[in-house]
Amino acid sequence: MTEQAEIPALLARAATGSHADRLSVVEQLDQAELSWPRQARVHVLRNFTAEPLEAPLKLAAFSRGLKLHWSCGDHDTYFQDILDPASTLHSSQADVVVLALWLESLPMAFDPEGRLQTAAVVEHVRSVVTELRNRVGGLIILNTFLEPCHGISRGWPSRSADDVRALNIEIRRMVGEVPSTCVADFEALRASIGEAHDLRYWFMFKSPLTQRFLTAWADVLGQMIASSKGGQKKVLVLDCDNTLWGGICGEDGLSGIRLGPSDYPGVVFWSFQRQLLELQRTGVLLTLCSKNNEADVMEVLDRHPSSLLRPHHLAGWRVNWRDKASNIVELADELRLGLDALVFVDDSPVELEQVRQSLPMVDTLAVPKKLYELPGLLAHYNRFSGVIRTEEDASRTAQYTAERERTRQSVSFTSHDAFLESLELEATIGEALPEELPRVAQLTQKTNQFNVTTRRYSENEIEWRHASSDSAVVILRVRDRFGDYGLTGLALLSNADGHGVIDTFLMSCRVLGRRMEDALLDEVMAFFHRRWQCGEITAEYIASAKNQQVAEFFPSRGFEVVEQEGTGTRYSITAASYEPSAPTMVRIKRRE
Amino acid sequence: MEDRIKRVMSKVLGVEVDEIGDDSSPDTIDNWDSLRHMNLILALEQEFGVTIGDEEVSTLISYPLIVLVVRELQST
Question: Is the Cβ pair B58, A204 closer than 8 Å?
Fold first, then answer.
């Protein structure tokens, strides 16, 4: 007995196993009494041996949660089957008809000398499709033709290859005018997978396609069938920094991020944006979910000369400092779509994991480590709807733009702490080591967002602070089960006769959202007491264009306003009244 | 090697491994139709990294013959 819970493992075995494994998995899934979200009845009309398509097609359907009932007409009887109301086509009650035609088996396709008769083929296909459309409902799927195996073109211009291409263009144009009818592009499939012809099986059994090609074709068909049945992905939720461009817009600024048609790696992101626009034109909605200042991101989209993505391409966005799962829930709500219609793309394994854990119905895609593979990420992802394009698809973004100004309700995740716990966070906090001082200076110069005073220091100044007995450089290193983030937070402290001063307190944006700032502040307060026995500590916030996310940092942790002047606010707190707030799930290693 | 052949046959033909023996052929295994035969040839070629000759593709229709041909191909 095959159980429901075994389905993912079986599908995984089919995806990676041998030909025999695949066949046995299909048979097992096909015969077991399992419940599938959707069903389809497929009937295949053909003029070649199409039976080898059955197993890969069923598998492509299963992997999309679709149970497929397969039937197949006799060899080369497709026209009679269409016209005869008593044929297997009409008794199958199919909701999808695959009209699988092979050029070399069409009697009118070639003259006695073997020259392609384009007009005759187009006319034949036109009449077949017209009769079929008049007699059956549901989706009809055709395919374009491959150059026959006697074709001689191997890269040089060839009359026969040109003829087949011209024929295919005609077929697609003609089919484009028939409702609910689409075409699997065999030439594009061959270009992407390589060898299409199985000459042995073609000549012996009239079965012309290799297993690889059959599998790729089945995948396209599965996608089209699933699209026609609904339940497909409709929305891309995109991270910004290091996903849409290289670098961090809040830190590197408009001119510092990497994005553009000529330089690596900017060109990778630029190509990715092109792909996004192409997807958007097929009706996929583009949205942003980024931990950033909204103004910084919008500045890039509005003003970056090489950004192809502009605000009007977006159906919605959440650019703020809250956790991404909550933001994604809000986006789905705003678009009035189920969460299972969303696909989330991010470069951070931590963000991806949080979304996977909180929202398992959202598909997650990671920006590849080999950055140049980024455009392949979406090219290989095949669960978007939009295979069957409609006018309404292309205008969907505009509809949502109109609805964007809806009340935004706050969603909170009780599971956020559980998520933090699952990260196995570990913080090392203590005085900087001499070899860490260059990195400390660099962070003071680069960090804009989580930086309370934005004071820039040279390496010399940092060394002086490190050496002096009345000042200290306290650093934070973070790691979790995804890896080591290195030195990602720091505080510059000083002492004046028992009065402590926090001169600088900053965190790299790579570790935000994990409450590491609380861990660092706790240790800073303990450090003041340990080192100088400070009774009172003052801190400062100097507002900049980039750092409003820390405007409330000190007051929300018990510090009181002492003085406000211009963009600066001074706070103080007594050592005794400070309450530690580091999350208990962070393991803290104190460097003595 | 016999076991591996039986496992491949079992998966492709949809019968239990211990149902496969010296008398196994399309006459004794109902499932063994032409489609499964095409798949069986491909699966055997993949499993053993061999190419079965065009003469044998259509004539390899019993378990003992399969063992014989696969052994021959592997030794060359």
Answer: yes
The set of long-range contacts for B18-26, using a CB threshold of 8 Å and a minimum separation of 24, is B20/B63, B21/B63, B22/B63, B22/B64, B23/B62, B23/B63, B24/B62, B24/B63, B25/B61, B25/B62, B25/B63, B26/B61
Q: Does B58 touch chain A (CB under 8 A)?
A: yes
What's the CA gap between A524 and A383, in Å, rounded? 49
ipTM of the complex: 0.90
**Nearest chain B Cα distance for residue A136, angstroms:** 28
- Do the Cβ atoms of B70 and B50 come closer than 8 Å? yes
Specify whether the backbone of A274 is left (phi greater than 0), alpha (psi in -120 to 50) or beta: alpha
Question: In this structure, what token pair is assigned to residue A471?
Answer: 């000042």
Q: How far apart (Å, rounded) are the C-alpha atoms in residues B40 and A405?
A: 60
CB A51 within 8 A of CB B35: yes
Put simply, whether B50 touches A (Cβ < 8 Å) is no
The runs of H, that is alpha helices, within A239-383 are 249-256, 266-281, 294-303, 324-335, 349-358, 374-379
Give whole-number Cα distances, A172 to A181, A185, A216, A310, in Å: 10, 9, 19, 32
CA–CA distance, A66 with A97 (Å, rounded to integer): 16
Token pair 């023996």: residue: B21
Chain B residues lying within 8 Å of A207, measured CB to CB: 38
Task: Verify whether the Cβ–Cβ distance A52 to B8 is below 8 Å.
Answer: no
Contact A207 B38 (CB under 8 A): yes
| Overall size of chain A counted in residues | 592
How does pLDDT run along chain A (592 residues), one tens digit per residue?
A: 788 888 888 998 998 899 999 999 999 999 988 888 889 999 999 999 999 999 999 999 998 888 999 999 998 899 999 998 889 999 999 999 999 999 999 989 998 888 889 999 999 999 999 999 999 988 999 999 998 876 655 666 677 788 899 999 999 999 888 888 899 999 999 988 888 999 999 999 999 999 999 999 999 999 888 877 766 788 999 999 999 999 999 989 998 999 998 889 999 999 999 999 998 888 889 999 999 999 999 999 999 999 999 999 999 999 999 999 999 999 998 888 888 889 999 999 999 999 988 888 888 999 999 999 998 888 877 677 654 444 445 555 655 554 443 333 333 444 567 777 777 889 999 999 999 998 899 899 888 889 999 999 999 999 999 999 999 999 999 988 777 888 999 999 999 999 999 999 999 887 887 889 999 999 999 999 999 999 999 999 999 988 988 999 999 999 999 999 999 999 999 999 999 988 888 899 998 7
- Distance between A28 CA and the closest CA of chain B, angstroms: 9
State how far the Cα of B37 lies from the Cα of B34, in Å rounded to an integer: 5
Nearest to B14 among A27, A207, A211 (CB): A27
CA-based nearest residue in chain A for residue B53: A200
Distance CA B63, CA B48 (A): 16
Asked if A372 has any chain B CB less than 8 Å from its own CB, the reply is no
